[in-house]
Amino acid sequence: MAYPPAAHSSPPRQPSVKVILAAADVSRVVDRIAHQILEKTQGAADTVLLGIPTRGVPLSRRLADRISTFEDVTVPVGVLDITLYRDDLRRHATRAVGPTDLPSGGIDGKRVILVDDVLFSGRTVRAALDALSDVGRPASVQLAVLVDRGHRQLPIRADYVGKNIPTALAENVKVTLAETDGADEVRLYGGSPA
Amino acid sequence: MIRHLLSGADLDAATATLVLDTAAEMATVAGREVKKLPALRGRTVVNLFYEDSTRTRISFEAAAKRLSADVINFSAKGSSVAKGESLKDTALTLQAMGADAVVVRHPASGAPHRLAEWVDGSVVNAGDGTHEHPTQALLDAYTMRSRLGRLDGLHVAIVGDVLHSRVARSNVLLLSTLGAKVTLIGPPTLIPVDIAAALAPGTDVCYDLDAVLPDVDVVMMLRVQRERMGDSYFPSAREYARRYGLDGPRMRRLPEHAIVMHPGPMNRGMEITPEVADSPRSTIVEQVANGVSVRMAVLYLLLGGNNR
């Protein structure tokens, strides 16, 4: 039998880790976003999914895969690297530039859905919008994210949100995916121990 | 990342590969509607050219402008240099103007190294005397990699005036770092004794072009630099062309996949015949286009982040 910790002892200082979404939950959430895209775009015609590296890329491929399973439509998928458009380039050592890979049909006149793992300050999406306007002129742009953790610093919102996670600024949301990290999971680090 | 790019030896294999990979991404910008990236907005790049140059200066200027940097062109002709200002005083002037990078070409070997001690910004060597020209080596390596798919294990022949060639020096240093094997070819008077051993172990020297041709993946022809030499290095231009010039019959002795390179400007009929220069094997025009992408990569990697 364990004794409750004595009242005068301070709580353990280790950062807490909480699993928000397990692998099965991630899969369900991706399914739901795919359905929502189909619903909101009335069948995903003239639609292009662009993943923002790193984890937006496998997410966009999964969404396209789900969409083709549900409704038998092929949605072109691409990669939009935003490194050169970031507003914090000078605060860090030089970042390596990744590939931008647009679908062969291009994005002009299409409905582009940007895909990322976590929506936080909104600065990544701002950079992505700037990058997008340099590579073409889509008819409209939407945003799909696996997790929205709040704390926006720019007037940006997502059209498709997998999971809203209320967080404190000190906390950290970490998404892992099978393609990049070996397993699907969303975790919340830090903050007060639950 | 390094702060200056002064020599082909400044780059280790990982950094050189990073430059080439970054250049490959920069190259995609050339095919876009908006050929501009915001990465160096608000940065100032000074092109400080003490020697005549068209392609290198324009290439650096285009690269800096595509990255949204402000470009100041400074050529020695018609400037305070003509009035006798020293390199150091010019450097301090540029420093006071807030140059984030100085791209320097100078007739004196080692001038960029001195400059790097005087200015806070990054210094890029765009050719110093008969010493080095590292961005040319990078664009040559980039061209080889994009044409042949790899650099490791390639056999590269560098033919001609090695003695006066900064292109050859930088290429030997960089290519050996990246795993290619270099053979220097030319008349004995134009290949310094022991240069191979001094630059990079594994580099060969050969005085017979025909003996090497069937065995190479790349032939890089160097310009005969008449402005840097008296007439004493070889008996006549015709004899040089016959022994070391690349003409049609010699080109046909190359392996099927081999490419022909030249850093330009060419002396057509001297080191290379028009038939070779305009053949599909020649990458001479490609090299110019690749030069902009490679210089964009260098400027971005030197100036893009906070590397102080």
Question: How is this structure best described in words?
Answer:
- Chain A: Also displays a weak uracil phosphoribosyltransferase activity which is not physiologically significant. Regulates the transcription of the pyrimidine nucleotide (pyr) operon in response to exogenous pyrimidines.
- Chain A: InterPro entries: PRTase-like (IPR029057), PRTase_dom (IPR000836), PyrR (IPR023050), PyrR_bifunctional (IPR050137).
- Chain A: Keywords: Glycosyltransferase, Transcription, Transcription regulation, Transferase.
- The complex is a heterodimer of chains A (194) and B (308).
- In chain A, 26% of the residues lie in helices and 24% in strands.
- With 194 residues, chain A is an alpha/beta fold.
- A five-stranded parallel β-sheet of chain A has the order 3-2-4-5-6, sandwiched between helices. A three-stranded antiparallel β-sheet of chain A has the order 1-8-7.
- In chain A, helix 2 links the parallel strand 2 and strand 3.
- In chain A, helix 1 packs across helix 2.
- The longest helix of chain A has 18 residues.
- The radius of gyration of chain A is 19 Å and the shape is globular.
- The two termini of chain A are 21 Å apart.
- In chain B, helix 6 links the parallel strand 5 and strand 6.
- Chain B has two domains: 141 residues, Aspartate/ornithine carbamoyltransferase (Rossmann fold); 150 residues, Aspartate/ornithine carbamoyltransferase (Rossmann fold, 3-Layer(aba) Sandwich).
- The radius of gyration of chain B is 19 Å and the shape is globular.
- With 308 residues, chain B is of the alpha/beta class.
- In chain B, the strands form two sheets. Chain B has a five-stranded parallel β-sheet. In chain B, strands 2-1-3-4 form a four-stranded parallel β-sheet, with helices on both faces.
- Chain B starts with 12 loop residues before the first helix and ends in a 5-residue tail after the last helix.
- At the A-B interface, helix 3 of A face helix 1 and helix 12 of B.
